[in-house]
Amino acid sequence: MKKQEKCYIYTRVSTAMQVDGYSLDAQKDKLRKYAEYQELTIAGEYSDEGFSGKNIQGRKAFQQMLSDIQEGKDGVSYVLVFKLSRFGRNAADVLNSLQTMQDFGVNLICVEDGIDSSKDAGKLMISVLSAVAEIERENIRSQTMAGRVQKAKEGKWNGGFAPYGYKLVNGELEIAEDEVEAIRVIFDRYIHTNDGINGVAAYLNRNGFVKKTRQNNTIPGFSSHFIKLVLDNPIYMGKIAFGRHKTEKRLGSRNEMHVVKQSEFPIYEGQHEAIISEEDWNLAQAKRHLNGYRREKIHDTEHAHILSGLLKCPCCGKSLYGNIAKAHSKDKYTRYYYYCKNKNGATGHSCTFRTNIEQQEMNKLVADIICATVRQPMFAKAIEEKIGKAIDTSDLEKQLEAARGKLRLVLGTKTRLEQQLDSLDESDPHFARKNLDLQRRYDEQYDLQEEAEEEIEQVQDQIRTIRQEQLTGENIYRLLLAFEQLYNTCSEAEQRDLMRALIERIDLYPEKPNDGCWIRKIVFNFPVPVNGEEVKEFPLENQTMLETVVRLSKEEKA
Length: 558
Fold this sequence. Notes:
18 strands; single chain; alpha/beta; Rossmann fold; 17 helices; 16% strand; Hect, E3 ligase catalytic domain fold; extended
């Protein structure tokens, strides 16, 4: 008879997450039912209530669970959690805790996410999702800057370049007379004609309007993207919007950030003069909503456009996106392509690249290139050497200790000054002057204390960042080494995530070369070893590499 395996269940809820579906009782019920279905014996239940997933400090039940695992208390094989975010939101903590568990033969199962760390794909998804969870937490924190919110509520400009049509005078917005006419025409044409954003841009470019070049507007032509930004900005009706965009770290990269537009954000009455009426702005928004709806996807909802957004147009430089050709009546076969949907470039000129690139061919080509790269012995050896390589933070550790020493000195000085203030004799004829002098020196220590504490925090952040980058980097390099084994076992959605974790962009030739390789250059999210050097840009002009890719393709067909 098969021995029944044991498990622990762990639940957590923060004060901000007391909602249906995330409550402790709901999590426990889900985990107990899962354990029963999988014929797992629950050997212990651990729960942290009212604790954030920012880190594991203070989560006593979580730390007790890890301690019990290390001691082999109940001989468990798994830890069950409702979602990975309940296990933790800090990527370093999640991966370090998971490694500790696996060192003692215990794996993690995230029931709602469908992740099992005992499987290769599960390990990958945990590293990716934990990084995403940490990014979300950091973005939430960064959006709670009380000073900027208050400034927006007061209707004041929150910094940065003035929007087109305005100029900054002593930090306040004033109408720029040499730019405002174009703004008025944009709204007038969009509201009162049948022109869309492309038509408005074409009208301005045809009728002699020249966009003034300045710090944040360096291109003289009016593009559809510029028109869209103007139409969607409530600044022109005299309002101040806060939080329209949020900066997020790009998934799979180390330091690369990108700006994400928010669909909902607060709007406050501004102190600046409006260029258009609120009624006209609302009319423009109504038309934008009418014209900007997204068509429901009706063809093969399981299909993922694996390289969408990574491939770049050789004409305008914009991203290529997935396109679907309806199944023909003859063969009933739905075809998928990558294409450039950009009709107007940044300068208002038309993009001439109208080739539809067959997706299956391009997806296979990129996968073959990565597989061929990894198969090279020197490449694989160089990658393996990067894994587990020690990092040197000794200089930062010395700097940290010096800052802590400075703080100890300041605190000691404060204590001595407090004692001197307490021991002053009020009958002393110089009491008032001595008291004032000591109080001034005492107050100065607070500034010095704040400087030392800030320096300590900055150095600690640098050390954490370096160690986190090493951790994230090792996961990416391990993924690269295992790419050939993982890729073919993944779903199309997982293949898309793999590609985005590895690749920043793929540059193409304007026409398909005779050798059949569309790709001119692949830019990775991280440095890769090529010919003894570490580079992010991987050119495909190398004839040897192309021959390797061709050979690999033939081997797979055989």
